[in-house]
Each structure stands twice: as C-alpha cells, then as structure tokens.
Amino acid sequence: MPTPLAICFDMDGVVLEGPRTDPAVYADAADAALETLDADPTPDQRSDLRRNDLEGVREHCERLGIDPTRFWELRERYASERTHDRIRSDERGFYDDVDAIAALADRTTVGLVTNNRQATAEFVAETVAADFDVVRGRDPTFEGFERRKPDPYYLEDALDDLGVTNGLYVGDSIKDVTAGRAAGLETAFLRRPHNDHLERPADATYELESLAALPSLVEASE
Hints:
Layout: E1 7-9, H1 23-36, H2 43-49, H3 54-64, H4 68-88, H5 99-105, E2 110-117, H6 118-128, E3 134-138, H7 142-146, H8 153-162, E4 168-171, H9 174-182, E5 186-190, E6 206-208, H10 214-221
Parallel strand pairs: 1-2, 1-4, 2-3, 4-5, 5-6
C-alpha cells in the first residue's frame, strides 16, 4: 500500500477495552439528567430515557415538560464524566498495544475518530499520551448521535481538518470498515476478544492481530 497520509483509529474496542460504553453508564447519566431537570418520570419512562432511542427520548421529555435537547446534552455530559471516572479508577482500561500509536505519531499523521462522545475522545487522547493530530467524537446533540458510523460524517470531518483525502482507518467492527471505505480510506480490521468470532469484513483492506503490527505495515510500504 502507499504510505498513508493519515492513520485514524476507532476508540472503543481499539484503544479502550471493550466494544462500547457500559449501558449502566447511560442509565446513571439519564438519572442524573432527570434529577438536574427536576423531572419525575414513571418507571417505564425512566427505563426508556436510559436507552438510545431518540424518538422515545423526545416523546417522554415532552410529556414530562422538559426540553429534550437539554436532557440529551446533560445525559451526554454525565455519561462522559462517569466514563472518565471509570478510566481513572482502572475499571475500564486500555489495550496493551496502544503504545504503537505513539510510535506511529512520530512518523505520520494520526487521528482518533469515534462514535463515542467528543469529551471522552479528548479525555482518552490525553490519557494515552499519543500526539493525535485530530480527535473527533460525536457532538452532544440528537443530530450528532444520528451521524454515527457507519455514516462517514465524523471520519470525513476529521480528514477535512487534517487536509488529506486518503489514508487508513483502523477499527474493530463492520461499521468501522463500512464508514472507512465510504470516506475513501483503506481499512484495517483489528482482532480483539469481542470480535474473534466474526468473519473478516469483505471490504477490509487488512486484518490485524494487534496494533503492534502497524509500524511494520507502514515501514513495508515506504
């Protein structure tokens, strides 16, 4: 492959252990947002507001007389705060091979592009001490949530910030590969314990057993 002008990484399941945010984090965040807004939902409403069902969130917020946009912003903020606490306490850790990203940052452009929240993406980028050239997560709005991968929106936005049009996206899911290809990137499907039962996506350019293989891959292309 030609040397990538940019190597972008997904976050959950690639840098952070586990494929997604624990649902309990969102449940606690929704409860905290409801308390902040002095809302008194029924048990069924509370259950629905803890889920990522945007239509249901709008409907229940309107019935409770609270601004759905404000509720969502608070929920996203509290979810980030709780996630950061879990990372600080080592309740959620980093994969052992993330040091490879720092090594790559000394040689080429690197980015962190995730469906997760922007605040958490920035926190993770600072915590792993890799010199990312761009960090892009989802905006804390309904529209921001709807732009998640496999929509390539955040990848394309990151590439625009970098001023490049080609490179490599490293992810652990089919939607990562789909979004990467839609953004015009080559893709690397990274094996982790949570996806070792899946077949390699047909559109994946590469399959990696570890991030530690990336420096050699780049070196071979030079």
